[in-house]
Amino acid sequence: MRHIWTIFARRIVIDQGSNSVSAFDLIEEISASVPAIPPDGSVLGIEATIGSLWAREEHGTPEKGRGRTRLLSPTGAQLVVVEYEIDLTKHQRRRNLGHIAGFPYKGDGRYEWTAEVEAPGGGWQEVARIPVDVGFRLLS
């Protein structure tokens, strides 16, 4: 199966009539001037969606597999992991959307979302890495 895209946005909407996808406010950076820097281990009050689109490798050949989305801290520690089925037996493409009710904070730096597919022989193959730079400044 093929990975087509992965995005991190405030909101991803699928229109019921046309089945079209709209992404609003893509998130590439989280930054703010604050009276106090949040402590490590805080959960930032950010609601967002991480979404991926998968497609059959061959148009007429049904497939089924597993996907995984992870959030890695600036040090590479795994903060979030979600596994899901990618069922392409009845449809050519499949979207996976995950709602984020808070963003785990482990200090300033570059966080990364990964999109992965389970390899035929076992293990995971990374197909995309989406950076999100996080930084806070003290109010003067």
Describe the structure.
With 140 residues, this protein is mainly β. It has a single domain (2-138), classed as Immunoglobulin-like (Sandwich), CATH 2.60.40.3880. The protein is 0% helix and 65% strand. It has strands at residues 2-14, 21-26, 29-34, 43-44, 48-55, 63-72, 78-88, 93-100, 103-104, 109-118, 124-138. A 5-stranded mixed sheet has the order 3-11-10-6-7, with no helix packed on it. A 4-stranded antiparallel sheet has the order 2-1-5-8, with no helix packed on it. It has a two-stranded antiparallel sheet with strand order 4-9. A hairpin with a 5-residue loop joins strand 10 (109-118) and strand 11. It is globular and about 60 Å long. The chain starts with a strand and ends with a strand. The model has no long low-confidence stretch (mean pLDDT 96).
- The strand count comes to 11
Please identify the structural class as seen in this structure: mainly beta
Average pLDDT metric = 96
Helix content: under 10%
Query: What's the helix-strand series?
Result: EEEEEEEEEEE
Distance between the termini: 51 Å
Radius of gyration: 17 Å
Q: How would the global form be characterised? A: globular
Low-confidence segments, given as residue ranges, are none
* DSSP helical segment count: 0
Instruction: Note the main sheet.
Output: 5 strands, mixed
How do the strands line up in the largest sheet? 3-11-10-6-7
CATH topology: Immunoglobulin-like
Per CATH, the architecture is Sandwich
The fraction of residues assigned to DSSP E strands is: over 45%
CATH class: Mainly Beta
